[in-house]
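Justification of computing resources. Each target in the renewal requires a structure prediction run like the one illustrated here; the chain below, 469 residues long, is used simply to show the kind of job we budget for.
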Amino acid sequence: MAFLSCSYEENIKYLDNSFKNCADIISLELNLEYMGDSRGKIYFVESAVSNVTIRKVVLGLSDVFPLETMEDVVSTIMTGNAALIIDGKNYALKIRSDGYPGLGVQEANDEKVLRGSNEGFSDSYKTNQALIRKRIRTPELKIEELQSGRRTKTGIALLYMDTIVRKEVLAEVKKRLKGFETDGILDSGVIEQLTMDNEYSPFPQYLTSERPDKSALALLNGHVVILVDNSPVALILPVNFSSFLKATDDYYNRFEIVSFVRILRYIAIFFAVSLPALYISIMNFHPEILPPDLISIFSASRDGIPYPVVVEVLVMEIAFELIREAGVRIPGPMGNTIGIVGGLIVGSAAVDASLASPIIVIVVALTALCSFTIPNDEFSSAFRLLKYYLILWSAVFGIYGYMLGIFSVLVHLCGLKSYGFPYLGPMAAGDIDQYHGERDFILRFPYMHMPFRPIFSRSGNRRRFRNRR
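Resulting structure tokens:
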């Protein structure tokens, strides 16, 4: 670690050599008249620091921070700020600026807003911090900034409520963020993969969000929020299974409609992962489960189909997955059009050509529709993969294979944890918080009956609501 020298010439020589081949690094000689005969030199990225910022600092030295090492000076300049080297001083001054250009505040693309703020996170984690601070105006909200990536020096902000967060969770988060070394961090997804508990699990162990109000609510409930520079997606931890089935709008609407919608989501999860597997099990091994009239309809619809049921299901599922992926990748409104029109055309053409039965088109379409009802895309993707896992079990062993597949998934979920908390809470270990978590599980109780924060918060500060009427 190289500390700044009192020799002005040595400091300037070091920095000039460091930025010798950087065309966008600008250096200006200054005559600091207000400091007597002192002179100075300011280094900054041309596209990140404006003349207004330089003039303001030179005249008034406002919004500055001392730097003692050369590494801090180089990092400051490369993160969009300016550094002022002063003759005769063994420290530099960090001049905070507006930083690199960004898109600014915009709407969240992946989280539909039914009720609540339309503001979404931007690519600048400084802006994202301000959006959260705008909603939680208390000094209890702490923001710790780190850097990760040997070459990218990406800024990472750790946000938490000092009086609510569990200290052991906070310590574990910091330990994991410092427990790896890599060339660069270009998105929060890299942090997610490098710090998760079980990297082989298809289930996400971080809740992601593009909405500041959702992140603010998570902080008030005792969660920790991680913001990564150049990424509009925040990471929220710890989490459990039910966290991914709750939308922010659930807390802005009345409990009756919210409870009804949540029941629909859990039913949708069952159909999204089970419907194709159950269809294969019944058609190949257990037709006696259904009434004779219904079985005759299913059998008649398969007349002329040249391959087994499992092949028919896999072909149609993969076809719909391709249509979904094409709709995502095609830019603009054309993507939605491709998804709808492509599904109709492929399904109708497959039935007319006797390549698929009308029943399987209904099964595949209903499965895809149910997967779209899950609020979190990463959580929905896990069930898209498990669907094929259960299809293979059912194709070999029928309904018994389906049950074995479901049992193996439940065993995996029982052993999965997020920063020490059981993934199946509050279904599992609900007695830890006297079953208060079940009041915001499948059914959401009225606010009057949810006075305590979730189990993720500190045990000595669990009460969040008091009725003073």
